[in-house]
Amino acid sequence: MSLPLDLHPVLASFGGAIDFIFNPQTSNVTGGKDVGGFDQAVELILAQLQISLYAMALSLLVALPIGLYLGHRGKGELIAIGFGNAGRAIPELALIAFMAAAIGVGVLNLTIALAVLGIPPILTNAFVGVKQVDRSTVDAARGIGMTEFEILRKVEIPLAIPTIFTGIRGSTIAIVATATIAPLAGVESLGDFILNENVYGEDGVLAGAILVALLALTLEFTLAGIQRLLTSEGLRLKTT
Amino acid sequence: MRIDQTKLRMVLAGVLALALALGVAACGSDDDTTGGSTAAETDGGAIASNPANGKVNLTIGSKNFPEQEILGEIYAQALSAAGYKVKSDLNLGSETVALKSVKSGAISGYPEYASTALTSFFGLEPEEVPADATEAWEKANEEFEKEGLTAFEPTPFASANAVGTLKKTAEKYELEDVSDLEGVSEELSLYGSPECRQRIDCLAGLEKLYGLKFKSFNPVDIGLRYTVLEKGQADLSILFTTDPQLSAESDKFVILEDDKEVFPAGNVIFVTEKATAEKAGPDYEKTILQVQEGLTLEVMQELDARVELEKQTPKEAAASYLESAGYTG
Q1: Nearest to A100 among B11, B125, B224 (CB)
Q2: Which ipTM was obtained for this model?
Q3: At a CB cut-off of 8 Å and minimum separation 6, what does A27 contact?
Q4: DSSP classification of residue A234
Q5: Under CATH, to which class is A49-232 assigned?
Q6: Is a pLDDT exceeding 70 seen at residue A2?
């Protein structure tokens, strides 16, 4: 039994890419040194995770407090949503080049550039999540003597967790996917495979793309699991 | 006082979780300053438009950095003046992509450095690349012919990668040749394009052929190669010998002499399919050779300067070159 002919080239290129991930390959331009392979793949995956982690941390640090506060006050829709959406439209590479003259390239530059991408979903969702909590619930909480901070912590945030987490997940995916541009800003990442077809060949480019996709999916599922654990029982979507 | 689950579900579903914005939007600066005249030395005479060429469609390609885009524009505009129907695609990511595009017919041809063709496509070691422009072209052409392609004669100017640094760094460590880095390179950081790290005609060659080890190698976008030096981040940066900054700011930047020839110099050859060249007729090659005749190192540097320093578009720079050299009216 042979495979259908028209399927073959696609499978072949995937096969090449998978092989690239596990075994070093020869390259035309390296003067005999093999490239790719498991060790380099692992090294670049870790580098990609590291820079993504920095950017996520900064995004959370900036976006969560502002989003929660504005949501609690029920004000600042323009800031939370308008700013948020504007942030998504900024071209990353231009931003990196712009900041390069001021703070240089490297981890700081890239962390800020990626955070610009990561902040909007978290900000918007934290705002919407808290704001949409039933006002009568909040009034009741206030009625039994809770302070404003207690209302936010004990009532609004628990009820808004699913929405807030959706923002965090979206932001994570955006950051991990975009961290592939890191090698243009002085930091290694899986983008090395994707940007350098001259060195790694088509197999390397595809291998890089596959690894980034797997990484994003793994994080997505992990975060979805955490979200489920954090969501109060009464709010969980029933799986019947 | 119960939570409306349907409502919550709707909100959840309505939230956009897919912000997969791998939108790498390079910022094209569209400054509309038109400069003075170009210092083209040769006057090849005006390009004559041949109505017979109107039936031929050509797509001129180039890689995606200023010098390549300028060359692409020069060839495209000249061929258009010769009567061809010309489109351009000046945003090809790498030579691998460019070559593939020629072979697949997505582009008719594109300018390539003979040295790059020999090392990247045909696996030559940097020291095997002939220093003589004609010899390098003949060697590359021989290989191209085997694949149904052909390369036209080389431009007068040649470009090469080079290790560059600030003048004060060079003075501090007494650097003139790349060999002088021996013993001090461990204290110096090197910046270069992402692919430099693995390439034998870049970092891999500096390590292997010069035996140098650097404090760090940091990949950066080609467009930032001077920014990292100016900012003081990079002690050394991989530059191009055609860079206008080297002549415009010669008191600030210097390049180190490549005494062991890791960076072969390459004149530009126009690579195209044989079939395309035959179909397009004699004016195709003639026009390309005619307009590149004025492209000396000086002129190329000036054109690069207009785009990189004065923020003209490659299109404007190419047009003013063609006009002031008398190729177009």
Answers
A1: B224
A2: 0.83
A3: A33, A34, A35, A199, A200, A201, B198
A4: G
A5: mainly alpha
A6: no
